[in-house]
User: What shape does this take?
Amino acid sequence: MISYFPDPQHVSHQGNASLGGLPTHLLESQDSNITILQLYPLQEPESWELTKKSVQVYLEDFHGLVQLVHHERTLAFPLTISCFLGCELPPEGSGAHAFFEVAVNGSSFVSFQPAKALWVAETQAHSRVVSYTLQQLNAYNRTRYELQDFLQNTCVQYLRDYSTTKKSKGSRTGRSYTSLVLGILVGSFIITGVAVGIFLCTGGRRR
Assistant: This one.
């Protein structure tokens, strides 16, 4: 997902998700005007409505997070934040690969290491904003161990279930390296951890 902030008060989002290389979801928004589309019926209508609401809440809380970090450490605008996350299921015998990378204004900012449940800096020079962000992300179970569980277990199991479904329906399985990019769907699992649990509920302070 790519989020563009021309100033602290306004934001536009563009996002997508794919499963096995097949685009499955699209997201576009301008401030509170949010459009989220499911391109294939992967979820039943009631379940999909809940997912949409979760993503909408995530976007609102994400905006609040940026505003709060700006208040605490002064960000420079305009600001573009890109999040790329998901998991990959290699051929049998190899371990699954999970990833979460964040870039700011086109440059790598921070990334999550699922094996260690640890956020690390992707820049050599640790600015005040980078140091502050890492301190907060690594201070809470929700942004470390719950995210680790989601990427290494929930995401990977989703892939395995999807692959099993394809095989049971007689689909071709020539491509054994299946990927899943959850650019917008992961929002419901990170809302509380990143936006609410860290900043909006604590005011930037640990309880």
User: Anything to note?
Assistant: The radius of gyration is 17 Å. The first helix runs from residue 45 to 73. Residues 27 and 137 are 25 Å apart (CA to CA). Confidence is low (pLDDT under 50) at residues 171-207.
